[in-house]
Amino acid sequence: MPRPKKQRSSRSRPQPGSPEQTRDLTEDETTELPTVELRSPPSGPFVFKKMVRRLPARSRPGDLVSLRLGDGQVFGFGLFNPRSKIVVRVLQQGVARPTPRFWERRLREAVGLRHGLLRLPEMTDAYRLVHAEADGLSGLVVDRLENVLSAEAFSLGMWQRGPALLQSLAKLVGVPHARLRMDETVELQEGILTKPWSTPECPSTVNIREAGTRFQLSWEAMHKTGFFCDQRENRLRLAEFCPGRSLLDLCCHLGGFALQAKCRGQAREVIAVDLDEAALQWAGKNAGLNQVRIDFQHADIFDFLRRMIEARRQFDVVVLDPPKLIRNRREMEAGRKKYFDMNRLAIQAVKQGGLLLTCSCSGLLSRDDFSWLVSSAASAAGDTKGRSGSRLQVLAATGAAADHPVAPHCRETEYLKALWLRAPSAKG
Description:
Blueprint: E1 35-38, E2 46-48, E3 52-54, E4 64-68, E5 74-80, E6 86-93, H1 100-117, E7 126-131, E8 140-145, E9 148-153, H2 156-173, E10 177-181, H3 184-190, E11 197-198, E12 205-210, E13 213-218, H4 232-239, E14 246-250, H5 256-263, E15 269-274, H6 277-289, E16 295-298, H7 301-310, E17 315-320, H8 332-348, E18 350-360, H9 367-385, E19 393-398, E20 417-422
Parallel strand pairs: 1-4, 9-10, 14-15, 14-17, 15-16, 17-18
Antiparallel strand pairs: 1-3, 2-6, 4-5, 5-6, 7-8, 8-9, 10-11, 12-13, 18-20, 19-20
Helix pairs in contact: 1-2, 4-5, 7-8, 8-9
């Protein structure tokens, strides 16, 4: 299915102004910070408007502020934006005020996980370096893609500090280029109008490797930070099921699953489907780059699956990895229905005893809810195909790769859900 197009409401369109100005990380430590008085301590990194008793009289969007409880006790510090539903994004609890050394320490800890513990540069040059709240930097994600740091800001305060943080991070990892963007939906939420920022001479394309498979990426065809590094471990794991088998990759985007299934998994046949024509063109280029043959098809996956079912065409392995279908609570009902419908169709395209890898990157949809939707879809598919939906086997439940850690106090960081299912055989 198509990746959702971004639309901006003319009535709520943010206006450019001072909030877009960048800030460095060397704020005067002797200056008294504006204070936000809280009704009660927040349980996570987000302070919503209803949690606030009193806002500071003199402050600017993006300011570093102190958080105090009603008795005057300091709770912590964060970045302030009165225009957003999230009034403050907490950076640090306690009485120790963030200093330039704070930012440097957080960046070093993030690099230490990826380079020290995970040793990711040994297998790839495409991985997440900063994962927002899970790395103590709420509102900022950064991926390394070859020689570029590709970042996305989710808060006004992090947008302002993004260039300074990226320049510090680039020195730590020895990368010459960086770029920063903000999604239009986030701009509306944060009340800011931005233009993508990049270092001078930042290349328009990058060439990355993932466990021996090569990808050339263009910023123009990319979504978010550019490459779905979160699915890396799932891509490699899926390849193990593919030798000599047929694979259908639905919502393939740049062809990550399809390429790894063919290059590493030696799949006999691979068909990859997406409605994003620009992404498919780059996916085709990457197949040529690796000298493999993949059948890329420009189609809506609902129409494509119905044609496959009508033709009784099935595959040994099917991957369903759609874009985010639930971006806010207003989209919950419609998004749940889409997940149900697409899984009901997808499982009918799996051969008896074959494998379905189905995913959701909608953070608002819980893992339990997603499992229930898939199970219900499998039962509905069984009714139409003469199979027993109750015999569906869940082989594994995974998530994002380890460079996308989860913060226990912020469940939004556990957004990616992947279910590995063995399709039911015939009744009896």
